[in-house]
Design brief:
Largest sheet: 9 strands, mixed
Distance between the termini: 15 Å
Strand content: 15-25%
Number of helices: 12
CATH superfamily of the largest domain: FAD/NAD(P)-binding domain
Number of strands: 25
Helix content: 25-40%
CATH architecture of the largest domain: 3-Layer(bba) Sandwich
CATH topology of the largest domain: FAD/NAD(P)-binding domain
């Protein structure tokens, strides 16, 4: 696949230098070391989510043995760990594989146009707009909009006397010591923020329109520590990783098959450990219709139990000078309001994509294996699991993409395009009912009823599909470039 005649023409361009992008670059460096690759990162630093988010207590809600890479053991003390530690892990991995030198920072891809032979990228850089070309494109930009989160406008916002903060843009100099803080939202960010804010705030009140399921687990993995004492480093990591994969899958399947049983278990656990009114933890949906929120070492439950934080359930009517007025008439007094109201989704970093001059709208395409878009050539997108660690799915996709590149090289073909059946019926590919998903549903790729157009939220099924199913499956169309690659 190499093209040595043009310094701006590459074999593979990876867009995004976060957890997925660095993983892609490391695998490429290991499996296809002769390919000319580059990572284009819009920001000034690698790390993605884990460098960008700076709100108090930022951490993973998945264990690092599965959120981390299979090829790079997580050696940290805690399996559920903080953002800076995850960012350090990403950076150290990039350096260990030598891919840090391939990152081009402050390179924002605004357009990708397929010309019949390769992708022509329009890239905004500090020196101005430039063009890059690549035969193959890997999109590792995550799923949310870095420009800002979902920020509904509440009546009376201008009347509130204190600061209104969205976690995505947390001020470094914000001091909440001795202050009353109201946190609007019931998702993972709110559950993460509450224990951290409660350490020094006068009181923290979570305002939730709809309850969510919250469970706890130890931040330290006792079995992982045992395995690390009796097994070699990589073997211990692999065994721990599989343990956590299978336990997570088991709990998800239990939730799907016996939702009432799991609902009761979660409710009983919350009441026992927090002493809170169980109605605040009784969602109107089944477990895993939305992601469960995780409280490492039960920190969220502890602040509810000791009284440094509390929850109220109800819709916001308006902001007032002294706080937040609910539709019920209750006034939640506050000096600071945090609007943990969710993310805005944005696929492929918002870049414009065209094939042969025709715009590509992901919501109008089927997802091939959850890795490519129908009728879009040489274009792989990473999108992780909604019911497990993000990286588990991304790494399967990336390893499969390398299999695809190997096959193309072996067969002397230039282009791989998944072609959907004409009679395929499209339906949403992401099963969650979460607000950020529903708001973006029309823009997300669809799925069909049959493989390989069915998106599985199941690691074992995907492992078979990505590792064992043949690359030439009757759906993937292989062809030669229609114009010279050096044109």
């Amino acid at each position: 696949m190499r093209d040595t005649t043009d310094p701006d023409s590459l074999d593979v361009i990876i867009v995004g230098a976060g957890l997925s992008g660095i993983g892609a670059a490391c695998l490429m460096a290991e499996k296809r070391p002769d390919d000319r690759i580059a990572l284009l990162e819009a920001r000034e630093a690698m790390g993605g989510t884990w460098d960008y988010f700076r709100y108090p207590g930022i951490r993973s809600d998945s264990d690092m043995h599965t959120l981390g890479y299979s090829f790079r053991p997580w050696l940290g003390e805690k399996a559920i760990t903080d953002g800076p530690s995850i960012n350090a892990y990403i950076r150290e991995t990039a350096v260990a594989y030598g891919v840090d030198e391939r990152i081009r920072y402050q390179h924002r891809v605004t357009a990708a146009d397929w010309d019949g032979a390769r992708w022509q990228l329009t890239v905004e850089t500090p020196e101005g707009t430039r063009q890059l070309a690549t035969r193959f494109l890997m999109i590792c930009t995550g799923y949310y909009d870095y420009a800002g989160g979902h920020a509904p406008v509440f009546a009376g916002q201008e009347d509130f006397a204190g600061p209104i903060i969205h976690p995505q843009h947390w001020p470094e100099d914000l001091d909440w010591t001795g202050k009353r803080v109201a946190v609007i939202g019931s998702g993972a960010t709110a559950v993460t923020l509450m224990p951290e804010l409660a350490k020094t705030a006068a009181h923290v009140t979570q305002i939730q329109r709809t309850p969510t399921y919250v469970t706890d687990m130890p931040a330290r993995d006792g079995m992982a520590r045992f395995f690390s004492r009796v097994l070699p480093e990589q073997a211990a990591h692999t065994v721990t990783r599989w343990k956590n994969i299978l336990m997570g899958m088991g709990f998800f399947q239990l939730s799907q098959r016996w939702p009432s049983l799991v609902r009761g278990m979660l409710s009983k656990n919350v009441v026992k450990k927090s002493g809170a009114d169980p109605t605040h933890f009784d969602p109107p949906y089944k477990p895993w219709d939305q992601r469960l929120c995780l409280a490492p070492d039960g920190d969220f439950f502890e602040v509810l139990k000791d009284g440094s934080a509390s929850i109220t359930t109800g819709a916001v009517e308006r902001f007032e000078p002294a706080g937040v007025r609910l539709v019920s008439g209750e006034l939640v007094e506050a000096d600071i309001i945090v609007t943990a109201t969710g993310l805005r989704m944005k696929l492929a970093g918002g870049m414009r994509v065209t094939v042969g001059g025709h715009a590509v709208h992901p919501g109008s395409h089927l997802s091939y294996k959850g890795a490519m878009l129908s009728d879009v050539p040489n274009f792989v997108m990473t999108f992780g699991y909604t019911n497990a660690s993000w990286t588990l799915k991304c790494e399967l996709v990336l390893r499969w993409a390398i299999r695809l590149l190997d096959h193309m090289e072996k067969t002397g073909t230039d282009i791989a395009t998944p072609r959907p059946p004409q009679d395929a019926s499209a339906e949403p590919a992401v099963p969650l009912t979460s607000g950020y998903i529903q708001r973006a549903l029309e823009h997300l790729p669809k799925q069909a009823q049959t493989r390989p157009w069915r998106v599985h939220q199941n690691y074992l099924l995907d492992l078979r599909a990505f590792r064992m199913d043949p690359i030439q499956d009757g759906t993937m169309e292989f062809s030669h470039a229609t114009v010279p690659a050096t044109a």
